[in-house]
């Protein structure tokens, strides 16, 4: 049961949070101004993440860690390494969620999988205010914060808070419809790196069960 829950959390991290990577803006800029600069100037990035989900009644917090890469618009490679391996890859057209232990990959169209989630902000090229109601939050933990609430009623989460420091998104905190909070800490952020041509390609290994949604 725990392993199954952790697999689902990996998908939440990418499709619900998907919080990745560095920005460029003035040191005195607000969190919203820095995030806008990030969306407009950072076309690709790599980094590491640690994700913790808590709040479910009677459940212990669950933690995952791994690394990622992304390239606008709509391409990303999210690799969970601990405690169980999993990959979520988007090639700009489709999203592949691969579970090696189950030998199964689930395939969705990018617009179906990302939609109006925070991934649309960080991986896409759309206008922030079109899909979200954005408001500033008080500074805390040494970070500048903003809150984005989806305009769509079926987004699957209530709000996402994004903490910025030194012109980089550092922490993402997402509150889902079940009252659970997922926090993603970002590190080793490298904006606009040179990425391999096959970074966002995925071919299911032989014997893998392919499920199309």
UniProtKB/TrEMBL annotation:
Monomer. Participates in the translocation of lipoproteins from the inner membrane to the outer membrane. Only forms a complex with a lipoprotein if the residue after the N-terminal Cys is not an aspartate (The Asp acts as a targeting signal to indicate that the lipoprotein should stay in the inner membrane). CDD domains: LolA. The gene is lolA. The lineage of its organism: Bacteria, Pseudomonadati, Pseudomonadota, Betaproteobacteria, Burkholderiales. Keywords: Chaperone, Lipoprotein, Periplasm, Protein transport, Signal, Transport. Belongs to the LolA family. The keyword tRNA processing does not apply. It is found in: Periplasm. Gene3D superfamilies: Lipoprotein localisation LolA/LolB/LppX (2.50.20.10). Residues 191-213 are annotated as: Disordered. This is Outer-membrane lipoprotein carrier protein. InterPro entries: LolA/LolB/LppX, OM_lipoprot_carrier_LolA-like, OM_lipoprot_carrier_LolA_Pbac. GO terms for biological process: lipoprotein localization to outer membrane; lipoprotein transport. Residues 1-24 form the signal peptide. GO terms for cellular component: periplasmic space. PANTHER family: OUTER-MEMBRANE LIPOPROTEIN CARRIER PROTEIN (PTHR35869). It comes from the Bacteria. NCBIfam families: lolA, PRK00031.1-3. Pfam families: LolA.
């Amino acid at each position: 049961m725990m392993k199954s829950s952790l697999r689902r959390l990996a998908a939440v991290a990418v499709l619900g949070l998907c919080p990745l990577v560095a920005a460029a803006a003035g040191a005195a800029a607000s969190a919203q101004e820095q995030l806008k600069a990030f969306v407009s100037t950072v076309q690709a990035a790599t980094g590491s993440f640690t994700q913790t989900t808590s709040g479910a009644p009677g459940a212990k917090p669950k933690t995952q860690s791994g690394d990622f890469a992304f390239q606008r618009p709509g391409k990303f490679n999210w690799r969970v390494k601990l405690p169980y391996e999993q990959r979520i890859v988007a090639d700009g057209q489709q999203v592949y969620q691969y579970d090696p232990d189950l030998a199964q990959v689930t395939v969705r169209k990018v617009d179906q999988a990302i939609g109006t989630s925070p991934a649309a902000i960080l991986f896409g090229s759309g206008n922030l205010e079109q899909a979200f109601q954005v408001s500033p939050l008080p500074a805390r933990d040494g970070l500048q914060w903003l809150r984005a609430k989806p305009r769509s009623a079926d987004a699957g989460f209530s709000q996402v808070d994004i903490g910025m420091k030194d012109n980089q998104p550092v922490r993402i905190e997402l509150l889902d419809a079940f009252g659970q909070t997922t926090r993603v800490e970002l590190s080793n952020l490298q904006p606009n790196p040179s990425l391999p041509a096959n970074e966002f390609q995925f071919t299911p290994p032989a014997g893998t069960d392919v499920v199309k949604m």
